[in-house]
Amino acid sequence: MADINMDLERYNGLIEKIYDAARDKISWAEPLEEFRNLFSANFVTLILKQPAQDDEEDLGLMIAVGGNLNGKGRVQYLPYRHNLTPFADQRPDQVFTVDDLMDESEWRESSYRKHWCEANDVYHVMAVDISAPEVGSLRFRITRPQDSENFSSEQKALCQFLVPHLKRALAIHLELDRSHSIGSMFSQAIGRLSIATVQIDESGRILEQNVFAKEILEEADGLQVVAGKLTATYASDNRELKQLIKGAFERAKENNNAILPEAMSVTRPSGEVNLGIVIEVVPTPVWAENKGQSKAVVYIRDSVAKSQASSDVAKKLFGLTPAETALSLQLANGLSLEEAAEALNIRRNTARAHLRAIFSKTGVRRQTELVRIFLNSVAPLSYTDSQPPR
Question: Where does the record place the HTH luxR-type domain (predicted)?
Fold first, then answer.
């Protein structure tokens, strides 16, 4: 049986795993397994999402740690179907057991116990609904089989002592996950604008890159990767690039992390329009200055890259027909009317008729104006028809 007196080493190990899980350094299964061992439990579950009451197909989600639940292993991520349980609507962040809610005969006759708990050798339950901002509550359950001892008041007190750590760690995890999602959305939006991004350190070594940057660097037409570093093809451009990177980091330090973008044009051996790049140093906390790895983001724009605008969104924005939208997108990608007609396999007269209709609907009079309003619209921020959201 678990003892209320945890030694300091075991306590530190559990707390470390809880907060490592919050930062996604380890799986949540690891701290849950520690809880299982600490309380001599057969299962520990963390119910992350509760099922919708009015939608039978909208299942919840839980992490379950224990002895071969449903014969499928010790750690599982399972759908959670039970909205109506005897443990619903309890005080948040307050540990309770079955004894706090009903007597033993009521529990034995409970439909929930008979249909779910009994099938999984669950009888003694210690639980807490952990309140989480903007989420509601996350249900935390520790269970034992019927032939084990019930949870003692000391064990309830120990669990209650650990709840604040779980609550903080889950809040951190949710906030980091939300920040990551927002960052991912911005990153994808930049990508859909055909802007390549490369993250580098002070030496120019590449740390990360998006898919557009990878394509540009693999082409080695102006910029490339040499010995893991961002390098310009021509020596003169490369010297300027190195100075630009060095100067950007130096000025960021001198100006207390003030973001001072640095820019240059890079010549392309193919003869295409030069690549434009902008470098911004990622600000670091004052207290962490000179203690970690300084980073910068290099934005690369290929002026001749094709627009990633979604034809469906463009059609809705400007009230165009599918044929008119297809022509507009070809023109936005730099083709002449004749080239666009050939690419779409339509007659020139048909293309001219579409263009007149487009002018009428958008209120522009020249092809250059049409290209400008398409490129400046929000259409490129949507997903392309061939690249659905991930």
Answer: 317-374
